[in-house]
Amino acid sequence: MFTILTGSQFGDEGKGKVVDLLAEKYDIVVRFQGGDNAGHTVIVGDRTYKLHLTPSGVLFGARLLIGPGVVLNPKVLWSEIEALRAEGIRPNLGIDAKTSIIMPYHIALDELRESGRKEKIGTTKRGIGYAYIDKFSRDEVQMKDLTDPALLEAKLAEIGPAREKAIAEMGGDPAVVRDPVLLGEYLEIGRSLKENVADVSYEINVALDAGKKVLAEGAQGAFLDVIHGTQKFVTSSFTTAGSACANLGVGPARVDNVVGIVKAYMTRVGEGPMPTELKDEVGAHLSKIGKEFGTTTGRPRRCGWFDAVLAKKSMYLNGYTELAITKLDVLGGLDPIKICTSYELDGKTLNYPPESTVEFARCRPIYEEAKGWTEDITGAKSYGALPKAVRDYVERIEELLGVKITIVSVGPGREQTIWR
Prior knowledge:
This protein has 420 residues and is α/β, with parallel strands linked by helices. The chain contains twelve helices and 20 strands. The chain folds into three domains: 2-97 and 196-258, Adenylosuccinate Synthetase, Chain A, domain 1 (3-Layer(aba) Sandwich); 100-192, Adenylosuccinate Synthetase, subunit A, domain 2 (Orthogonal Bundle), CATH 1.10.300.10; 262-419, Adenylosuccinate Synthetase, subunit A, domain 3 (Adenylosuccinate Synthetase, Chain A, domain 3, Alpha-Beta Complex), CATH 3.90.170.10. Strand 16 (337-345) and strand 17 form a beta hairpin. Its EC number is 6.3.4.4.
C-alpha cells in the first residue's frame, strides 16, 4: 500500500503528529521534497521532538528514507541524528544518492538575495531556493559526492567559479565556496553516512512488490507549491501530492490513498496574501492558545478563520481520499466561529480562488457562522463524546470540501486523537 500525506493549506497544519500516528502502520516512511526550511513537532508523553529532515516515523523503528527530491543540509541532518541517538533512538535511515546537497554558498546566496530585496518574500535564508536552482540547472552537489573527496573536488572545480563570482557581485565573501574547514565538515558527515546512501525509488518499488506499506511525507503545504501556490510567496519545491510520484520515482498507478491535513483554522508564516487573516482579539486568541510559532524559524504565525474556498482548491490539487483535522481544541471559547465560503473581488462573488496572486491579495472573505463551544474537548475519546457544536463544525467542513474527515485531533498529544 502506498499512501501520500500532504498539508492542504500554508504548511504548519500538524503533519508531524499525523505522520507519527500513522507510522506505526507503515514499514517505510519517506520524505519526498523540501529541505530544513520546514519542521514538524512530535509530542510523545512529556517528550517533544522537533525535526526538520528526519521523517516522523523515527520513533517507531520504521525504515526512513530521504528521497532525491529533497535538498539536504548534512549538518542539520547530522545534528538531528546525534540528538536522537542521545535519546536512545537510532534512525534506520536511507538517503538517496541523488539527493541535492545544500552547500554553504547556497546559504550565503540566499541571505544576500533576501537582504537585497525591496519586497521580502519571507525566505528562511537556509539556501533552499538556491539548492533547487542548482538542481534544475544541473549544477548540483549530490549526496554521493560527499562520500568521496575526489568527487566533491571535481564538482566544485566545475561549478565553483560561477558561484564565487555570483557571491562577489552581491557583496559577499566568495571564499565560502571552497572554504576547507566547511568542506571538511561536509566530507566528515559524508563519510559517516556512506552506508546510508540508497536508491530510494528501487527500495520503495521493491517494498510495494512485496506487499509492504509505504507512507510518503510532504513538507510545507499546497499553497506554498512553486507552481500552484501564491507566487512569489512560495517555497522552491512541488508540495502537492502528485509530486511525490515524480520525486520518488514511483508510478502514479501505485498510489492507494492521499491524506490531507487541514487545521481547524488558518495560519501562515511569512509574507503573502491570506484573506481570512485576523488582526484582532480573535487572531490573538488563536495565536496564544494554538502556540502558533514556526518550528523552524520561531516566527509568529498569522492566524485567521478557516478558508473553505482555498481548501476546496487544495482538494482538487491533491485528490485527497481522506482528511485529518487538527487543533479543534484551539477554537474552544469562540462564539460564533466563522467559515469563509466565498470571496468578494471587485464587486463579484467568487467560489474559487483567482489564479493571480495580485487579485487573490485583494479578495475579501464572505463568511457563514457556526455555533461555538465552551467545553474542554481535549480529553474526548470518541467522536460521539464531542459536543454537538464541534461535530457540526467538522461535518460542515466535510460538506464544503466533499472529502471525509477520518482523523480528528483535539490536542497536541498522540492520545488526543479520535479516529472516525
